[in-house]
Amino acid sequence: MTCDVFDGNIYDVLQVLGDRYSLMILLEAIKRPVCAPRLIELGIPPATAYRRLEVLRRMGFLESKGFTATGKGRWALCYVASFKSIMIRISGEGVEVKVNYDRSVIDKKEFESKRAL
Fold first, then answer.
1. Each residue's pLDDT tens digit, 22-52
2. Structural domain harbouring 30
3. pLDDT in tens, 46-85
4. Is 45 part of any domain?
5. What CATH number corresponds to the domain at position 28?
6. Sheet of 75-81: strands edge to edge?
7. I need a surface site. Which of 4, 76, 82, 105 has the fewest CB within 10 A?
8. What is each CA distance from 9 to 13, 29, 59, 84, 113, in whole angstroms?
């Protein structure tokens, strides 16, 4: 199935995937559920952690998985990666982003997006 990613704005996808904190979050989330307090422990500034989690969730790369208790008696929302892999291909034909969604997390099919530059 071929369609535009995120209303056809492939540049936003590339910008988010090129951000070091977003990449840290995705790499962590593909291994295990993540929550903001854990990301802060990894060195991501608090406001940045919460903003990036929301952006990645809105773009469909993360899904909320429920709450977990923090060590301070509070609850934090956890997220899991909604994908198995993301591939970016740049060629003479343009830019292609291919997301292979994890169907056990989210009911989306693998899709591709191509955009000529």
1. 999 999 999 999 999 999 999 999 999 999 9
2. 6-82
3. 999 999 999 999 988 999 888 888 777 888 899 999 988 8
4. yes
5. 1.10.10.10
6. 34-35, 75-81, 62-69
7. 4
8. 7, 23, 11, 21, 10
